[in-house]
Amino acid sequence: MSRSQNDSADPRMIFEADDVAVHFGGVKAVDGLTFGLPEGKIIGILGPNGSGKSTLVGAITRHVPLTRGTLKFLGKDYAGDEPHLVPHRGIARTFQTVRLLEERNVLENVLLGTDSLTAGGRAARRLGQERAEQAMARTGCDHLAKVRPDELSYGNRRRVEIARAIAMEPKLLLLDEPTAGMGRAEKEEISTLMLSLRAEGLTQLIVEHDVQMMVDTCDSLLAMNFGKLIVEGEPREVVRNPAVQEAYLGKQAVKHA
Amino acid sequence: MQELLNTLTLGSIYLLFALGMALAWSTIGILNFAHGAIFVFSAFSAHIISEHVALSMPVLILISVLVGAAMSALTQWLAFEQILKRSTNHRSAEMRVLIGGIGVAAIPIAIVDKATASAPFGFANSTYKTEVYESMGLRMTNTSLIVIITGVGIAVALTLWLRASRRGLGLRAIGVDSETASLMGVNRTAMALGTMAIAGGLAGLAGALQVFQLQAMGVATGDQLLIKAFAMIVLGGLGSMAGVIFGAFALAGAETLIFAAKLGTWVDAVSFGLIFLVLLVRPQGIFGRQEVRRT
Amino acid sequence: MGVPVQRRRLLKMTAALAGMAMLAACGGGTGAAAQNAGGEGGIASNIKLMGVYDTTGPVAYAGVGASKGMKLAMEEIEKQAFLGPDVKLTLDEVDTAGAIERASSEVSRAIADSEVKAIFGPVSGQQAATVAPIVEQAGVPTIFNQAGSEGVVIGDFTFRGTAPMYSYYDIAAKYLADKGLTDVAVIYNGTFPTFAEIGQKEFPRLAGEHGLTVSSSYAVQSNTQDFTAQAQEIAAKKPDAVVLLLIAPQAVTALTQLGQAGYEGQTVGSSVQAAGNVAQAGEHAAGLVYPVDFSAAQDDETAVKFVEEFTKKYGKAPDQYAAEGYDSMWWLARAIKASGDSSRAGIQKGLQKVAAEGFEGVMGDLTFEGNDLRVKGVLVQWDGSKERLATE
Amino acid sequence: MMAWYTANAVVVQATMTTLLLALSIQLPLRVGVFSFAGVGCFGIGGYTAAILYTKFDVDTWPAVALGTLLAGGLCYLLGLIIHKLSGLYLGMATIAFSLIVAVAATNGGSLTGGASGIFGALGGITNLHVLLLLALVVAGLAISEYGRFGRMIDTVREDPELAAALGINVGRYRKLTFLASGLIGGLAGAVTTLLRSTITPAEVNFHMVVVALTVIIIGGSSSWLGALIGAIVITWLPTVLSFVADWESIIYGFLVALAAIFLPGGVLGLAKDLIHRWRARRRPTPPAPPASEAEKIPGGEPSSPATERSLASTQGGTS
């Protein structure tokens, strides 16, 4: 229930959550979160496994029913939306485990990002194709266009998924552990990509376990535990916060940070 | 009161048939559409042997159980295991297991059909004699008694066993999540084979007892029960043995009542209509657990 | 005994009259057939026939039985040189294996083959009803066995060599009336067309005619397997007789459960219980009577001779299907002889001509309603191990 | 050729009607809806057409149209009620629906002809008509298989949650599927009935579900082309196998089981896989990896081809 006022420094919140709670029976996966996402920033969510991060992402995309609370995007309350309406508002996401159509090649998987958001017709088809090709180029999977996902490395599967989300040309991009299972070099590529997207004004919310990457990439961090927001603010400060260290990081990681 | 007794007997027959199917479905995720054929063929095997030697009830049941177990394990090994090995996702595997079962079922059924020239078969040559008990205006045969006790006994025992034993835990884990199960050190393949053998044994038991109870079996009997069993399991809620027990007696009760109301040709409509309504109110069946959704 | 014989003759006459009336009504064109017994086409030396029915699958017993009967008849026809010394009948058989499309496809193929002069059609009701319009349109005379549903005998070219069960079920009603068993309960399979027809309509009508009362009637489905409830209710009400119109396994169970419920009255079945299909019910089936169009236990000369020949050829006694096939083949042979013409049209005219007159077959005096066979039927009793004629 | 056609016209016809029935079951499966309502709709379409044709003197085509529309409408209503049920629960509900249709037909008195069904409903439909109708249906389905529409339907089936996250209205797809499946099933029923001239309650049975599923599994569930292959195999197999007579149903069972085991994507899937492999071989080399990809992540090696992967080794997939 901790309402924080310190976001008010930012001029415009693209997204606002007010007292959002998601309970599964007796399990309070998310329990009264209030926060906002400033436009054009990268915000990270930290928290141990089971702290409710992914449930929160699910709540934002309206896949998970809310127990209470309101969600606003671009100033409009959309908590009552069906999940499929959320992308039409300009919110795109990736998943913790990569979700691709195994029977379709990479290009088609990326095109899927544009399919329901563009109208039919030849012009729209060409537009979708362009958007998909751009997205693939940015994520570095353009040379894989005709390959099927089951022939790809894990890192490349991640790229395809991010490309699909970018092709949706969202105003808010939710990344659920986008670098899980990637090597250092690949993680840096993702970081670079996120920063270049930010430069274009895309707001991003990222859930990650790699603290170093979060500190390097994010403009601010939210730390969660037991479904509640414990600290939020400038990444380095958040990471140093004793409550966060106790809940999540452990002594060793603190040294590393 | 007599109606209750009749429901109990009919329900126990349904239950015995459905138990094996439910066990395999809710633990190792195999919806075996050859279950009905195994049921018929096991009873038929016992019938063939009984034509040559006059055997007692336990021996006939044993033959039927063994044949059922062997057929079911063989089906699992030669067909279902192979299908799972070659499947990439659950939906297509589920579907192909279903079709594979239908294909496998055609074989024993064709053999029985040919051998009996579609005439009903039974254990007329057995040493077992049906006796009728009568007390307080209620009638019951010793066969009904055996059917009820076996049906309910095995159902309860199976439920408890699944709940309690480590093996049961392993099995349930397969049903819920095969990866966790393999982490727990459960050998999936062997376990699946064992489960299918038990399920087949139950089909054999059900087959033999049904022949004793109803005196005869037709070659189409297995198919007719298959759909009913499918309905009972879904009605009770997949994954719950208690649900199967409930489903079997609920369907038997409904059928008995419909017959009592002289609506004999409406039986399927009423009972399946009820199942339809139940699913609308409780989409996961009466005893089914609500899926906990996690993202 | 006197009365029944007279009655039989009367029936036969009326039936024959009705047949002729229908024939006349069917259009003047066919009248010509009656005169030219000499035949314009003559009898070919090789007459090809096509048999399209189930010889595998769930109703294979009917197709196989009929086939055996027909083959025996063909042998005899040839041996007797019934159609002349050099005339040979050949029968090509194809299995429909329970598939409607296969039946119509094979029939179409037979139609396309101009060598095929007549067809013996499917034994399954729906297969038969599907091919009936096809053969009608093509003008190929087709004789069906079994296939007791409506829509099979629909015109000049469709014939049926099996009397519908309801048409001779009256002997069961009469038997009950003669024995004074007037209070009757009925259990019938309402999803099985033949039984639905008798259970819902024909038996109540026959009961009325013979002064019986249907005190209770229970409809069940083909997938009903347990009859405890019905058996107990019947045992409690103690009607004089119970009529069971059930498929084979159902009848065994119902008879057993009636016995277990303590019912001791007369049980009446149907021809489905023939061929030892109630053997599994053991003592509970003893005393069951049922009307059939043919029983190997029949004692008239023609039947005894047929049973003898059949047993010599196949090693076991003929069933009703064999008898129907046998009589159907003879019907065809008589038809060819009667019209003196083995062309499709000739056979068609011949079949109608023979039908109008009726003839004596192994099923007794055969009469026809139009192109549809009628027999008197015999009532047989299952004594627990074998069939014998039911004595009145 | 002409002689061949004359002799086999009915089998050709049966192939087409079987295909229609299979398509009415395949479409929902392709959208991830385990619906067997197509069989019930076959009954509704068939009975409606037959009743109109024989009892109300309606002409062939209006009778077919009304049967089709009624089946489609009722199936859509069914879909509105049950589209949220999952997996085999929905399957059970739709089987219940189909069986209820059969019972209603059995008890429909003189209107439906009771247990004996309706006879003499021989409409004026030719093979050419059936072919044209089939072409129409297939054209519609083909559109739903290619391009963006096809991709979206695949997503709705494979991963409804993903589909929603991509902005696809999953519920609407599922509901419309019921409508389309009902229309196709109804058309199949009406056409088949007026071709055969008969329909009985015994036909509207689980057996029909089995036939449709067998067609789909043998041919391939991903495309109408698969259903066509399956329909051809299933309709012609008995003709081919008839020489084995008594062994026919046993061999049939074996073939179906073998197809289920060894052809995950049916005959069509096998063909597609072969084509894909052939093309992959013709590609100069596997695409050159960029510099970063040289650094492989642990456990991230490419997985083996789909056909050899087993369920146990898949990650995710279902959740």
List the helices and strands and how they pair.
The complex is a heterotetramer of chains A (257), B (295), C (392) and D (319).
Chain A: E1 13-24, E2 27-38, E3 42-46, H1 53-60, E4 68-73, E5 76-77, H2 85-89, E6 91-93, H3 106-115, H4 122-139, H5 154-167, E7 172-176, H6 184-199, E8 203-207, H7 211-217, E9 220-225, E10 228-233, H8 235-240, H9 242-256
Parallel strand pairs in A: 3-8, 3-9, 6-7, 7-8
Antiparallel strand pairs in A: 1-2, 1-4, 4-5, 9-10
Helix pairs in contact in A: 3-4, 3-5, 4-5
Chain B: H1 2-28, H2 35-52, H3 57-85, H4 90-116, E1 132-135, E2 138-141, H5 142-164, H6 166-176, H7 178-183, H8 188-214, H9 221-236, H10 241-260, H11 267-281
Antiparallel strand pairs in B: 1-2
Helix pairs in contact in B: 1-5, 1-6, 1-8, 1-9, 1-10, 2-3, 2-4, 2-8, 2-9, 3-4, 3-8, 5-6, 5-8, 9-10, 9-11, 10-11
Chain C: H1 2-25, H2 31-35, E1 46-53, H3 60-79, E2 88-95, H4 100-112, E3 116-121, H5 125-138, E4 142-144, E5 158-160, H6 170-178, E6 183-189, H7 193-210, E7 213-220, H8 228-237, E8 241-245, H9 248-260, E9 266-268, E10 288-292, H10 301-314, H11 320-339, H12 344-357, E11 359-361, E12 364-369, E13 372-374, E14 378-382, E15 387-389
Helix pairs in contact in C: 1-12, 3-11, 4-5, 6-7, 8-9, 11-12
Report on the structure:
The complex is a heterotetramer of chains A (about 260), B (about 300), C (about 400) and D (about 325). Chain B is an all-alpha fold and about 300 residues long. In chain B, about 75% of the residues lie in helices and about 5% in strands. Chain B has 11 helices and 2 strands. Chain B has a two-stranded antiparallel ribbon with strand order 1-2. In chain B, a hairpin with a 2-residue loop joins strand 1 and strand 2 (about 140). In chain B, helix 1 runs antiparallel to helix 8 (about 190-215), helix 3 (about 55-85) packs antiparallel against helix 4 (about 90-115) and helix 10 (about 240-260) packs across helix 11. The longest helix of chain B is centred in the N-terminal third of the chain and has 29 residues, at about 55-85. Chain C is α/β, with parallel strands linked by helices. A 5-stranded parallel β-sheet of chain C has the order 2-1-3-4-5, sandwiched between helices. In chain C, strands 7-6-8-9 form a 4-stranded parallel β-sheet, sandwiched between helices. A 3-stranded antiparallel β-sheet of chain C has the order 10-14-15. In chain C, helix 1 (about 1-25) packs antiparallel against helix 12 (about 345-355), helix 3 (about 60-80) packs across helix 11 and helix 6 (about 170-180) runs parallel beside helix 7 (about 195-210). Chain D has a domain at about 5-205. Chain D has helices at about 1-30, 35-55, 60-80, 85-105, 110, 125-145, 145-160, 160-165, 170-195, 205-220, 225-240, 250-260, 265-280; strands at about 120, 195-200. Chain D has a two-stranded antiparallel sheet with strand order 1-2. Chain D is globular and about 65 Å long. The interface between B and D is large, with 58 and 57 residues. Chain B: Belongs to the binding-protein-dependent transport system permease family. LivHM subfamily. Chain B: This is Branched-chain amino acid ABC transporter permease. Chain B: Its main location: membrane. Chain B: Keywords: Amino-acid transport, Cell membrane, Membrane, Transmembrane, Transmembrane helix, Transport.
